[in-house]
């Protein structure tokens, strides 16, 4: 599969599963959900390693999709809930929100920045990356 299509597929699945987090939190609770998700992500991480080492690209895509779904069902949003609830003042909670938006901005712009930057580098400058 084309890398761009694979990225779109993974991100779409992750985006579509996020709304179900609230329902799962209500049914299972935070601790159970986080422990189960981290255990599943550990197993999926091993599966990804095996798929990469054996050269099974389709299996790698399937496991990466399940990893993204698992992350979006628990550790992704639930971690931010813990951080927001542990803040005493609204200012600290607002700072957390700004941090999340800044992280989103960095993740969106990094690829284009690195592409522009690496085009200007010479071969002997590659060690900087």
Count the domains: 2
Order of helices and strands: HHHHHH
Low-confidence spans: pLDDT under 50, at least 5 residues?
A: none
- What is the radius of gyration computed over CA atoms, rounded to a whole number of angstroms? 18 Å
Q: Percent of residues in beta strands?
A: under 5%
- Overall helicity: over 70%
Mean pLDDT: 79
The count of DSSP E runs of length 2 or more, i.e. the number of strands, is: 0
Q: What is the helix tally?
A: 6
Class computed from helices, strands and strand pairing: mainly alpha
The general outline is flat
- How many angstroms does the end-to-end distance come to? 27 Å
Let me know the largest β-sheet.
none
Entry summary:
The chain is an all-alpha fold. The chain has helices at residues 3-17, 21-28, 30-54, 57-73, 75-86, 90-120.
């Amino acid at each position: 599969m084309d890398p761009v299509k694979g990225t779109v597929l993974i991100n779409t699945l992750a985006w579509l599963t996020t709304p179900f987090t609230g329902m799962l939190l209500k049914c299972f609770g935070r601790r159970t959900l986080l422990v189960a998700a981290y255990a599943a992500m550990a197993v999926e991480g091993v599966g990804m390693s095996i798929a990469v080492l054996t050269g099974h690209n389709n299996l790698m895509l399937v496991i990466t999709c399940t990893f993204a779904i698992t992350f979006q069902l628990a550790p992704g949003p639930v971690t931010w809930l813990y951080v927001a609830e542990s803040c005493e003042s609204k200012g600290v909670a607002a700072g957390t929100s700004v941090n999340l938006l800044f992280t989103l901005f960095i993740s969106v712009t990094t690829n284009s920045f690195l592409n522009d930057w690496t085009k200007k580098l010479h071969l002997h400058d590659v060690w900087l990356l």
